[in-house]
C-alpha cells in the first residue's frame, strides 16, 4: 500500500476515495507514518509579487483581467519589499516562500531578471524558494534553478476532461510540458489542484491519476478548496464539504506517498477539527499569512495556537532536500534567450466564462457612463 506507483487507475483511486471514512483515514495515516514525520507540518508563505491583470480565463481566478472582481492589481513588487516580507515570514515560523505572479507564461526580460534576483535573495535567507509564474521553457527553468529555486509550482487544477470546462486559454498538455521543463533541472515540482469547481469525484480521481503517473511524482501537491469569488464564473459554487476535503487529502496521501500534501486555499472555511482530520489524513503543509494571493487565509497566530493544541511542530527548511546553490547573475551559465514562446491557445468556448466576461464588460461600461 505504501510503495510509489505510477500506474494507478481511476477505478482503484475511486475505490480508495469511497472507502468507509475510518478505513480511509487509518490507511492514509499508516502510509503517512512510513514516509513522513507525522508531527511535522511545513509552514509556507505565499506572496503575490504581481497581482491581477492576467490574460487567462481560469474560471476560479479573480486575477483574470476579463472578470470584474474587487482585486486591486499591482506591478511587480520590488526586491527589497519581497525580502522584507520573507524575513517577516521567517520570523513567524515559515520555512518556505512561494512567489506568485499573474502571468500566462514567463517572458525573458527585466521583470524575469528581477524575479531571479528575488529567488537569490530569499535563498540567501536560508529559506526554501518556490515560484509560480505560469508556463516556463527549459532555459527559463534552468535560469531559475541556477538562481537557487527550490520548487516550481504549476497546478494541473483538475482532470484533463474537467480542465476544459474551467479554462479555455491554454491546454492541459501545456501544463504537462512546463512540468517536464522543470523536471529537466534540479528544481522540485509542486503540482496539485482545486476541488469544489463542480467536478465529479471521477474528475478528482482523474487528477490524481495524472499526478501519480508523473515520474518522479511531484515533491509537493497542494489541495485547494475553491474560494468562490464574486465576479468569477464560479462565484455561485457551494463551499466544499469538509468530508470531501478530508477524503481528497487522504486519497492523495495514499496515491502520492512521498509527496508533501499541502492544505492550501479554503482553510478559512474549515474548522480546527476539520484541519486536524486533514493533518491526520496526511496533510503536512499549510500556507500561512492572512492572504493566499488574493483570497483570505487564517491568521498565523491562530495556526500556531492550533499547532500547539495538536502537538505539531513547524518543519525546518531543507528537511527533504539540501539547499540549492545560488549562482550570482554575473557568474551565470544560462543566459537569456529572449524567449516569449507562443504556447498553444485551445480557445474553445466555456459558457460560464463567457457570461462572466460579458457581465464584467457591462459593469465597466456602466461605471464609465
Ligand atoms: S490562475 Fe494564474 S493564469 Fe489563471 S487567471 Fe489566475 S493568475 Fe492568470
Shape: globular
Q: How many extended strands?
A: 12
Q: Please trace the helix and strand order, writing H or E for each element.
A: HHEHEHEHEHHEEHEHEHEEEHEH
Ligands bound, unique: iron/sulfur cluster
Structural class: alpha/beta
- Quick check: average pLDDT? 94
Please characterize this protein's 3D structure.
Its EC number is 2.8.1.6. This is Biotin synthase. Residues 350-369 are annotated as: Disordered. Homodimer. [2Fe-2S] cluster binds at residues 98, 130, 190, 262. The chain has 369 residues and is an alpha/beta fold. Helix content is 39%, strand content 14%. The chain is built from twelve helices and twelve strands. It has helices spanning 10-17, 21-35, 79-91, 110-124, 138-147, 160-166, 172-183, 201-213, 242-255, 272-280, 300-310, 351-368; strands at 40-50, 96-101, 128-132, 151-153, 188-190, 193-195, 220-225, 260-263, 283-288, 291-292, 295-296, 313-314. Strands 1, 2, 3, 4, 5, 6, 7, 8, 9 and 12 form a ten-stranded parallel β-sheet that branches. It has a two-stranded antiparallel ribbon with strand order 10-11. Strand 2 (96-101), helix 4 (110-124) and strand 3 (128-132) form a beta-alpha-beta unit. Helix 2 crosses helix 9 (242-255) and helix 3 (79-91) runs parallel beside helix 4. The radius of gyration is 20 Å and the shape is globular. The protein starts with 9 loop residues before the first helix and ends with a helix. Bound molecules: iron/sulfur cluster (SF4). Iron/sulfur cluster (SF4) binds at residues 54, 56, 58, 61, 63-64, 102, 134.
Amino acid at each position: 500500500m505504501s510503495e510509489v506507483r505510477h500506474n494507478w487507475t481511476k477505478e482503484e483511486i475511486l475505490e480508495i476515495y469511497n472507502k468507509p471514512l475510518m478505513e480511509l483515514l487509518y490507511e492514509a495515516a499508516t502510509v503517512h507514518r512510513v514516509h513522513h514525520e507525522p508531527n511535522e507540518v511545513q509552514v509556507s508563505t505565499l506572496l503575490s509579487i504581481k497581482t491581477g491583470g492576467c490574460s487567462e480565463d481560469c474560471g476560479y481566478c479573480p486575477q483574470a483581467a476579463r472578470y470584474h472582481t474587487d482585486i486591486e492589481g499591482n506591478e511587480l513588487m520590488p526586491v527589497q519589499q519581497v525580502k522584507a516580507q520573507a524575513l517577516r515570514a521567517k520570523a513567524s515560523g515559515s520555512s518556505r516562500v512561494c512567489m506568485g505572479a499573474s502571468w500566462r507564461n514567463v517572458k525573458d526580460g527585466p521583470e524575469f531578471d528581477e524575479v531571479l534576483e528575488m529567488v537569490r535573495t530569499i535563498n540567501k535567507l536560508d529559506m526554501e524558494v518556490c515560484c509560480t509564474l505560469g508556463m516556463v521553457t527549459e532555459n527559463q527553468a534552468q535560469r531559475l534553478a541556477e538562481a537557487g529555486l527550490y520548487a516550481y509550482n504549476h497546478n494541473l487544477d483538475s482532470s484533463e476532461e474537467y480542465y476544459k470546462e474551467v479554462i479555455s486559454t491554454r491546454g492541459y498538455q501545456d501544463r504537462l510540458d512546463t512540468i517536464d521543463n522543470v523536471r529537466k533541472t534540479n528544481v522540485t515540482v509542486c503540482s496539485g489542484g482545486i476541488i469544489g469547481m463542480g467536478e465529479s469525484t471521477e474528475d478528482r480521481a482523474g487528477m490524481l491519476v495524472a499526478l501519480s503517473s508523473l515520474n518522479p511524482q511531484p515533491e509537493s501537491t497542494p489541495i485547494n478548496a475553491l474560494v468562490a469569488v464574486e465576479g468569477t464564473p464560479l462565484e455561485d459554487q457551494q463551499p466544499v464539504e469538509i468530508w470531501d476535503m478530508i477524503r481528497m487529502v487522504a486519497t492523495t496521501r495514499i496515491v502520492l506517498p512521498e509527496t508533501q500534501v499541502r492544505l492550501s486555499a479554503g482553510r478559512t472555511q474549515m474548522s480546527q477539527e476539520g484541519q486536524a482530520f486533514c493533518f491526520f489524513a496526511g496533510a503536512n503543509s499549510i500556507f500561512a499569512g492572512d492572504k493566499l494571493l488574493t483570497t483570505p487565509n487564517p491568521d498565523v497566530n491562530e495556526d500556531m495556537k492550533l499547532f500547539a493544541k495538536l502537538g505539531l511542530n513547524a518543519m525546518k527548511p531543507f528537511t527533504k532536500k539540501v539547499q540549492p546553490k545560488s549562482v550570482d547573475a554575473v557568474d551565470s551559465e544560462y543566459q537569456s534567450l529572449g524567449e516569449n514562446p507562443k504556447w498553444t491557445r485551445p480557445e474553445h468556448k466555456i459558457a460560464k466564462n463567457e457570461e462572466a466576461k460579458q457581465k464584467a464588460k457591462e459593469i465597466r461600461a456602466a461605471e464609465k457612463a
